[in-house]
Design goal:
Elements lengths: L1 H15 L9 E14 L1 E3 L5 E2 L1 E2 L2 E11 L7 E8 L2 E6 L4 E3 L2 E3 L4 E21 L3 E20 L2 E24 L5 E11 L3 E16 L4 E18 L2 E17 L1
Antiparallel strand pairs: 1-5, 1-16, 2-3, 2-16, 4-7, 5-6, 6-10, 7-10, 8-9, 10-11, 11-12, 12-13, 13-14, 14-15, 15-16
Amino acid sequence: MKKTVLSLGLIALCMSNPSKADTLLGLYVGAQGWNMETVGGFSEDGTNTDFNFEDKSQSNLYVAFEHPLPLIPNIKLQRTKMDTSGDALLERNFVFGGKLFSINSEATSDVQLTTTDIILYYELFDNDLISFDVGLNAKYIDGELLVTDKNDPTVNGREEFSGPIPMFYSRLAVGLPLTGFGAFVEGSFLSVDDHTLSDYQAAITYSLIENLAIDVTFQLGYRAVSLELEDLDGIYSDLEFKGAYAGLEVHF
């Protein structure tokens, strides 16, 4: 009888505290391979020149730590590479990095771009059926842009830019009991007068390993990142990176 009363008490406690029903402590480590397509362009003065960018395979790595301490947010760190290259037949004179690229000349671009997300979030609801997180993301953008005249490689302009941009963050995940399948949508977004940024992804998940020691989950999804920058360290852009990805997440 005492065991029955104790069991009922534990069930009631979990139901009344859904945000702690899943785990008390959790370390999540994930890696994704992203088939990235890039569209758009950039400039130093707001008159962006679009390039025909090549599709690239890129990586995304993240680690998250969750705990039951009240008022103290959970933390997730994420690092994504978005390097690409492309070319364009210039429809007007284009000045970049102190160099003049004449109209009708062929220009190539080399984009080296990395974003680092520092996400602080709270679990408003968390169990095996559904979880919902909200928080803030300090997305740090670190980039280097190189433009070269295809017919005269001595004419080239290079610019570096970097800076943090605060964004709102949210994540919704659902699970299908007894099947191993689940799904989630996750995103960060910001829209102000000088910048408009978004970073969204949605995926279907499948549990490969699930026990008391470790959980391993396979992910298959789609991600889209939009960077509309207005004078971030002297750079303007209307770039969009998008494509399918596959990954693994390990939960200790």
